[in-house]
Design brief:
The complex is a heterodimer of chains A (322) and B (307). The radius of gyration of chain A is 24 Å and the shape is globular. Chain A is mostly helical. Chain A is built from 14 helices and no strands. The longest helix of chain A has 37 residues. Classes of the chains: A mainly alpha (322), B mainly alpha (307). Chains A and B meet through helix 1, helix 6, helix 7, helix 11 and helix 12 of A and helix 5, helix 6, helix 10, helix 11 and helix 12 of B.
Chain lengths: 322, 307
């Protein structure tokens, strides 16, 4: 992997980020009619107060002045204030980030590991009953809206069986600390995490299956078998590592979709993360909050795509040497 | 050309058409040999018939809560109608049947928008070289990286919730994948000998694109279309569930939104939250099965792998 390749990729991502920032600014300026009026609806304001508020929100001056103001504030990590809570958008997002990172991180780990394993089993015994069962299962979960799957799991495990809590991140009546608190939060995490994991493992299984089927036709695999290596060894050492490459890219591409899926799933389970914040901001509507969230979502997707490109180049010798 | 072909030999147009007919018959035969593809097709035809026959098998008046004052609230299927009623006494059956229209309409119309943008960008980026191509690909990459749902949410919030805007939002956010796929195919097609021959005979860009490139990538566009529709339908469902759909017309996503926010889960009103979800799963699965079967028939690379 030459330094030139890396810098090229990094600058490409920075270009995309710049595009998102410009796009983000103008999109919301086109939307917003008069935020001050929205925010203080039903209250009598003098013209002077109105002007002061417009200045405070950075809404006076020409569009170009506003854009410059926006960039400067962005440089200071100032994303404005929420219309609803009047707290800074940055602090709101920072508070909601951890629950989402935990949820998306653990569910992505689960869905990739289980999905890849299912894909390997299905491809290795192609056409068997096991293959047909697994493929039907993964196709069905792939076709389900993630929030509907969440509703079904909620009904079965929380309402009918009563094994798990119906929502939130912790039991509001308990004031446990330390390990007890962690155990309580883990119990609340199980259902949303399971929902996202099941909703996304189908795609990994399908891609892993077809990638492994392609790899199994390669000459080096035929050779490995012909020279008498055991089946499991051929699979583990020769086929699977090469077939994993497309899955690596898919994880990064899917990251954006998992974040999106988290919006609906978090709102079902009242999981206090970025998705739930987005849901609340849509219903309000709270434009500075939406703008900040959109920027965070886009920036993290760009970052993970860059990571995937670099990982791919590192893992695939054909890209590495060129 | 036609002057040379006079006499007993059939005209070039005739040859081309009979060849196309044969190719179509072969593709259809191949398609019929795919079991999942046929199942998907049958399910799809049934759902489309239900959507078209909605006025015959369901009552549109029942969607208006002011006209369902006499029906019981939260009635289970055994108490009222084929599928029970919701919190306002509206029968689920009528909502489900009319909802299929919105879900299919949004899925198909948004896909057409996405396919037109994706194909034009893909063909242009593949056919032209130099800066127009790199500019188009850069824009495609930007749209590929922007997370789809947040963008769709922002756009829907900006444009306002109605069916037309939902279609536009999903259409303009779903094209980049198609553009990339088609560009890759155009890049290989345009190096083929007959394109070079045509160019040597003095064909212009428009002729090359319309007569040689586009017909060669159109099977790919068709297969990609059937795989984009289910994604568009799922997107509509999610947008409606988040409250960004049309508040006046029921879609399956909005039914789920209303079921959830009106407490169907606590009441365990399974007749409310199961049917729309099953409908979505069936229509998405059907389109996916048809799309994969078409891909295997139409994509020469996959055809080789299968045999």
């Amino acid at each position: 992997m030459s330094p030139r390749f890396v810098t090229g990729k990094v600058f490409g991502s920075l270009g995309t980020l710049a595009f998102v920032i410009v796009f983000n600014f103008f999109l919301f300026r086109v939307v917003e009619g008069n935020p001050v009026a929205t925010l203080f609806r039903g209250r009598n304001l003098t013209d002077a107060q109105r002007l002061a508020l417009r200045h405070q929100f950075g809404l006076d001056g020409s569009k170009l002045d506003q854009f410059w103001h926006y960039l400067v504030q962005l440089g200071h990590l100032n994303l404005g204030r929420s219309y609803e809570t009047n707290a800074t958008v940055f602090s709101e997002i920072a508070a909601a980030a951890w629950p989402t990172i935990a949820l998306v991180g653990i569910s992505t780990l689960l869905s990739t590991v289980i999905g890849v394993a299912m894909g390997i089993v299905a491809a290795w015994r192609r056409g068997s009953i096991r293959d047909h069962t697994l493929t039907s299962f993964t196709m069905t979960t792939y076709a389900m809206p993630d929030f509907w799957l969440g509703m079904l799991l909620l009904i079965v495990f929380a309402v009918l069986l009563g094994w798990l809590p119906i929502g939130g991140i912790s039991d509001p009546t308990s004031n446990a600390t330390g390990p007890a608190k962690l155990a309580d939060e883990t119990k609340h995490l199980i259902l949303p995490c399971l929902t996202l994991a099941v909703a996304y493992l189908g795609e990994y299984a399908i891609v892993m299956r077809s990638s492994l089927l392609d790899t199994m036709r390669e000459d080096y695999l035929v050779l490995a078998r012909a020279k008498g290596l055991r089946d499991a060894l051929v699979r583990r050492r020769h086929a699977v590592p090469n077939a994993l490459l497309p899955v690596v890219t898919l994880i990064a591409i899917n990251f954006g979709f998992v974040l999106s899926g988290a919006i609906a799933v978090e709102s079902i389970y009242s999981w206090p993360g970025l998705g739930h914040a987005t849901y609340a901001a849509i219903r309000a509507p709270d434009l500075p909050m939406l703008q900040g969230l959109f920027l965070v979502f886009s920036a993290s997707v760009i970052f993970f795509n860059l990571l995937a490109d670099l990982a791919y180049a590192y893992l695939d010798p054909r890209v590495r040497t060129s | 050309m036609t002057a040379l072909a006079e006499g007993q030999t059939p005209s070039a147009r005739r040859i081309a058409w009979s060849r196309r007919r044969r190719a179509f018959a072969r593709a259809w035969r191949d398609y019929c040999s795919s079991g999942p593809g046929l199942i998907g097709l049958v399910v799809l035809v049934v759902i489309v018939l239900v959507a078209l026959a909605a006025p015959l098998i369901a009552n549109h008046d029942n969607l208006d809560p002011s006209k369902t004052l006499t029906t019981p609230l939260w009635a289970s299927p055994s108490q009222h109608g084929p599928l029970g009623t919701d919190n306002l006494g509206r029968p689920i059956w009528d909502q489900l049947v009319y909802g299929s229209r919105i879900s299919l309409l949004v899925g198909l119309a948004a896909t057409i928008i996405a396919m037109v943008i994706g194909s034009v960008v893909g063909v242009a980026a593949g056919f032209y070289e130099g800066w127009p191509s790199s500019v188009l690909m850069r824009v495609t990459e930007w749209f590929l990286v922007i997370p789809f749902l947040p963008l769709a949410i922002v756009l829907a919030a900006v444009l306002g919730p109605n069916v037309r805007n939902v279609i536009i939002v999903i259409g303009v956010t779903s094209w980049p994948g198609t553009a990339r796929l088609i560009r890759a195919q155009v890049l290989t097609v345009k190096e083929r000998l007959y394109v070079e021959r045509s160019r040597a005979l003095g064909a212009g860009s428009a002729h090359l694109m319309l007569r040689h490139i586009v017909p060669n990538v159109s099977p790919l566009i068709l297969a990609n279309t059937t795989l984009t529709v289910p994604i568009a339908i799922l997107s509509e469902t999610t947008l409606s569930f988040l409250g960004l759909g049309d508040p006046l017309r029921p879609s399956w996503g909005r039914m789920l939104d209303e079921a959830f926010s009106n407490g169907a889960i606590g009441k365990n009103a399974w007749w409310y939250y199961l049917p729309p979800g099953i409908g979505i799963v069936l229509v998405v699965l059907a389109f996916t099965l048809v799309g994969h079967a078409l891909e295997e028939v139409l994509d020469p690379r996959l055809r080789e792998r299968r045999s």
